[in-house]
Design a protein that fits this description.
It contains 16 helices and 14 strands. A hairpin with a 2-residue loop joins strand 9 and strand 10. The longest helix has 21 residues. Helices cover 43% and strands 17% of the residues. It has an eight-stranded mixed β-sheet with strand order 5-2-1-6-7-8-11-12, with helices on both faces. The protein has a four-stranded mixed β-sheet with strand order 4-3-10-9. It folds into two domains: 188 residues, 3-Layer(aba) Sandwich (Rossmann fold), CATH 3.40.50; 142 residues, N-(1-d-carboxylethyl)-l-norvaline Dehydrogenase, domain 2, CATH 1.10.1040.
């Protein structure tokens, strides 16, 4: 299958390598030619995982976005949500009928991409899928080298528009067999684990993060009080899902930490593999790191706005969002991704459901 992978992050390199190793023809795009030079010249990525270390050939690395996207059956964008506003206006004119776009995860970026297509005057009927986590626990170990600690075993994914997305799901499963169909893109957005796991870890570890040169929030930073906070926050997420009509499975984060419970997105023993790797012992600047800007300012703000819309009390989410804003000196409820800022807060429940099912009006999605 012809697949475009867009972006230069850890997950983008993992996507390009894994999908290439599966036998797909991968067009791997990155904007920064200087940083991308080792892949452009060598046309390969060095992968280290449980099977050892090897070089994986990548068919078509490129800095030309149109070359990457045109004619691709699947466009994979494993970038942080913070990158969406900068990329989508450039991507939108190139999207074509029948293409499948995958945002793993997306924080309701599917809506932003359809909006960008409409603004660009592109009426192509494409399908944008969202899931609950990045399909890999991965870190770069060089300009063309990655280490993959864990691969996802379950990826609950919903599409916008949801209606007629069966073929899109089959296309996606050809590349990501772990994908499981759920109702729609908002269902997928409310599976996002990042805004649940990371805000308590960085905000309740703010002292050691600023004091030490490096700190592992997943190892010594995951203490019982923080785990209890995470569980309380996740209970609010599930309450919001249920209030909006989304049923089980909810993929509670508790399953990630307890191997005796149902298999979570990364499967059993994934937390132990993550901490054993040592790759997450790092410096996390609290005013610039993606755990703050993506998972608190964007992701947690979005969850809080959905709670408001659904009439669900979410004091833990609201409190953590306020703390993140205080640390950064701005009101994340105003600057973050919310239904109000997306222009959706005044939609009726029926109106929201129609939007999710059929897509934006006048954009080829109706």
């Amino acid at each position: 299958m012809e697949i475009a992978v867009l972006g230069g992050g850890n997950g983008c390199y993992a996507a390009a390598a894994d999908l290439s190793e599966q036998g797909h023809n991968v067009r791997f795009w990155r904007r920064d030619a200087a940083a991308f030079a080792p892949v452009l010249e060598g046309r390969s990525i060095q992968v280290t995982d449980a099977q050892g270390t090897r070089d994986v050939a990548v068919a078509a690395p490129t800095t030309d976005l149109a070359d990457a996207v045109t004619g691709a059956a699947l466009v994979v964008i494993p970038l942080p949500a913070t990158a969406q506003a900068g990329l989508f206006p450039h991507l939108a004119p190139h999207l074509e009928d029948g293409q499948v776009v995958y945002l793993p995860p997306g924080t309701f970026g599917s809506y932003l991409l359809h909006q960008a297509a409409r603004d660009a005057g592109n009426g192509a009927r494409f399908f944008c899928g969202e899931t609950g986590t990045l399909p890999w626990l991965v870190r770069k170990h060089g300009p063309a080298a990655i280490q993959v600690s864990v691969r996802a075993t379950r990826l609950p994914t919903g599409f916008m528009p949801a209606a007629g997305s069966e073929a899109a799901m089959k296309t996606l499963q050809e590349a990501f067999p772990a994908v499981e169909p759920i109702r729609d893109a908002l269902d997928g957005a409310l599976m996002n684990a990042g805004p649940i796991i990371h805000p308590p870890l960085i905000l309740m570890n703010a002292g050691p993060l600023e004091h030490f040169d490096a700190w592992d929030i997943h190892n010594e930073g995951t203490q019982p009080s923080i785990r209890r906070t995470t569980d309380a926050l996740d209970a609010e997420r599930i309450a919001v899902r249920e209030a909006l009509g989304y049923g089980a499975p909810h993929f509670p984060l508790l399953d990630h930490y307890d191997d005796d419970r149902d298999e979570w997105m990364y499967g059993n023993s994934s937390h132990e593999k993550l901490t054993d790797s040592g790759d997450w012992r790092e410096k996390i600047p609290l005013t610039s790191h993606r755990y703050m800007l993506e998972d608190v300012e964007i992701g947690l703000a979005f969850l809080c706005s959905c709670a408001d819309y659904a009439g669900v009390d979410a004091p833990v989410a609201q409190g953590l969002l306020a703390l993140g804003g205080a640390i950064n000196g701005r009101d994340f409820r105003q600057t973050g991704r919310t239904l109000t800022n997306l222009g959706l807060a005044d939609l009726s429940r029926d109106g929201l459901r129609e939007l999710l099912e059929t897509g934006l009006p006048d954009s080829g999605q109706g």
